Amino acid sequence: MSASDFDHLGRPIIAVTGLGVVSSLGKGVEANWEKLTGGVSGIHRIERFETEGLRTTISGSVDFMGDEPMSSVDLSYRMAEAAGSEAIGMAGLPDDDFAGPLFLAAPPVEMEWRFRLALDRLSAAEREEAGYDRLLEIARQHPDASIYHSTQCSRISELLADRLGTRGLPITLSTACASGASAIQLGVEAIRRGETERAVAIGTDGSISQESLIRFSLLSALSTNNAVPEKASKPFSKDRDGFVMAEGAGALVLESLASARARGAKVHGLILGCGERADDFHRTRSKPDGSPIIGAIKAGIEDAGLTPEGIDYINAHGTSTPENDRMEATGLRAVFGDALTTTPISSNKSMIGHTLTAAGAIEAVFSILTLRESLLPPTINYDNPDPAIELDTVPNTARKAEISAVLSNSFGFGGQNACLVFGRAA
């Protein structure tokens, strides 16, 4: 090792040597990047299930991972496996013997209604009276093992660990929309502590269902712009009316820079800093003064050894909900000041929708590609700017730009806020 392998605090510099992604735009880094930078939307009408009576009938669902009906666990696993295998292969490592830990962000697990109704050991009346624990006990005994597997939060990570050959107990976390970024942070911290030379961080979410749409609709969080699906997600626009629920997976192979150099691996980018802050103000709303968001942004930039002036581009959380976009802009302005109006900031959720627990990981992949390719993805559907949020959103068309550092924000329901800072590979 040399001094150039360590950061400003004497910690191992974290290299990203592999990337993988699945989204409503398609499967694989190349397909996603081409459509993302081309301003193509993956939002479409839902055909997976009946939508009559639902307020929202559009999504960024991933419908090409298999023909048979899949549970949320099954689809989340298939997307995670595809993204993880792609990332490990790009890193030049065997995709069945990774020899490092797995940190997985996955959706919260709850037995789906179709599985509850399949538990026919009880009569309808008895089933209605039964508690969730009783349903799990019945599911465990049911001939269809997939019903019980759908209730286990560790199921996806166990399957991935076997498939990818990771080491140690796989970690599964679910911190709402910050989950993907939090999984990456866990991998970064493990390498910084010297516990491992490499780790794979994956975020995945395949949880679009009638029930999930209803739940978010009850929170008035979803767009109801059903007539033109590809125009529904419009971050930072004056007429934004909610986010579009989506599915996908993102994966990154993290490695100490010294390890990557020693084996001659290609480095696609660096992870320079991680910041996180909790917000206990409300279950879904941000603290009015924005202090937890401001704290997370500052913490990420400071951890990277940078100042706000060192950030060249911001990958926004940018969900397209009225409050989130306003609060994110408020937090960023508190940190960046007047420079925010000239610092490009765009949201890929305008094209792929909001992938929930996978969002932070997918956006990390796109952030690294932005640095590597010197190309800023646009915010599409930006035709009606919000005068209260003055930003350079890279409107509607991708832009060439030489940048050296990217801030990627992830702010989740329940007060989970995580910010990552990425740097260009030397």
UniProtKB/TrEMBL annotation:
<protein>
    <submittedName>
        <fullName>3-oxoacyl-[acyl-carrier-protein] synthase II</fullName>
    </submittedName>
</protein>
<dbReference type="InterPro" id="IPR014031">
    <property type="entry name" value="Ketoacyl_synth_C"/>
</dbReference>
<dbReference type="InterPro" id="IPR020841">
    <property type="entry name" value="PKS_Beta-ketoAc_synthase_dom"/>
</dbReference>
<comment type="pathway">
    <text>Lipid metabolism; fatty acid biosynthesis.</text>
</comment>
<dbReference type="Pfam" id="PF00109">
    <property type="entry name" value="ketoacyl-synt"/>
</dbReference>
<dbReference type="InterPro" id="IPR018201">
    <property type="entry name" value="Ketoacyl_synth_AS"/>
</dbReference>
<dbReference type="GO" id="GO:0004315">
    <property type="term" value="F:3-oxoacyl-[acyl-carrier-protein] synthase activity"/>
</dbReference>
<dbReference type="GO" id="GO:0006633">
    <property type="term" value="P:fatty acid biosynthetic process"/>
</dbReference>
<feature type="domain" description="Ketosynthase family 3 (KS3)">
    <location>
        <begin position="11"/>
        <end position="424"/>
    </location>
</feature>
<dbReference type="InterPro" id="IPR014030">
    <property type="entry name" value="Ketoacyl_synth_N"/>
</dbReference>
<dbReference type="GO" id="GO:0005829">
    <property type="term" value="C:cytosol"/>
</dbReference>
<keyword id="KW-0808">Transferase</keyword>
<dbReference type="Pfam" id="PF02801">
    <property type="entry name" value="Ketoacyl-synt_C"/>
</dbReference>
<dbReference type="InterPro" id="IPR016039">
    <property type="entry name" value="Thiolase-like"/>
</dbReference>
<dbReference type="InterPro" id="IPR000794">
    <property type="entry name" value="Beta-ketoacyl_synthase"/>
</dbReference>
<comment type="similarity">
    <text>Belongs to the thiolase-like superfamily. Beta-ketoacyl-ACP synthases family.</text>
</comment>
